[in-house]
Amino acid sequence: MTTKTQPNILLALWTSFNELPLWVRLWMVLWLIPLNITSLCFINEPMGVWVAVLANVAMLLNLPIMFRERRLSRTMALPHLPFWTPLVILIFWMVPDASTLYGMFLIALAATNIFSLVFDYIDAYRWAKGDRG
């Protein structure tokens, strides 16, 4: 099967992004990515550096995947698994205090990344079975 590629990689990525369902695009741009990046604001909190590293490395590793594949694909689920899974475990281990800003943030981050990981594990399974969509 021949894949039609766009000459401009940014245009190709934009086109691929716009092919996603609207709710996924809104989820990514308005919640998932900003919330994970917000972890950088809490690096001085207990385990804050670990939270920020685990939250953001998972996303940063998607950049070379996007540029190599010239699209958003199931391959992008793979970097999330080894970083966000331990992140969620770490947050549960920390037992966040919901009466503090950091605690509320950690609870929101854990819930967000659990939701994302459900889709990531499904996509990783499909990817492992040969569905690279």
Q: Keyphrases for this structure?
A:
single chain; mainly alpha; 133 residues
Give the ordered list of helices and strands: HHHHHH
Characterize the main sheet: none
Tally of DSSP β-strands? 0
Number of domains: 1
Q: Could you state the oligomeric state of the chains shown?
A: single chain
Strand fraction equals under 5%
Rg, Cα atoms, Å:
16 Å
Mean pLDDT: 94
In terms of structural class, how would the helical and strand content be classed? mainly alpha
Helix content: 55-70%
The helix tally amounts to: 6
Shape: elongated
End-to-end gap: 13 Å
Spans where pLDDT lies below 50 across 5 or more residues: none
Write a compact overview of the structure shown:
The two termini are 13 Å apart. Helix content is 68%, strand content 0%.
Task: Itemize the secondary structure elements and their pairings.
Blueprint lengths: L8 H10 L3 H17 L9 H13 L1 H8 L10 H15 L6 H28 L5
Helix pairs in contact: 2-3, 2-6, 3-5, 5-6
Structural overview:
The structure is a single chain. The chain is an all-alpha fold. It has one domain (9-128). Helix content is 68%, strand content 0%. The chain is built from six helices and no strands. Helix 3 runs antiparallel to helix 5. The longest helix is centred in the last third of the chain and has 28 residues, at 101-128. The radius of gyration is 16 Å and the shape is elongated. The chain starts with 8 loop residues before the first helix and ends in a 5-residue tail after the last helix.
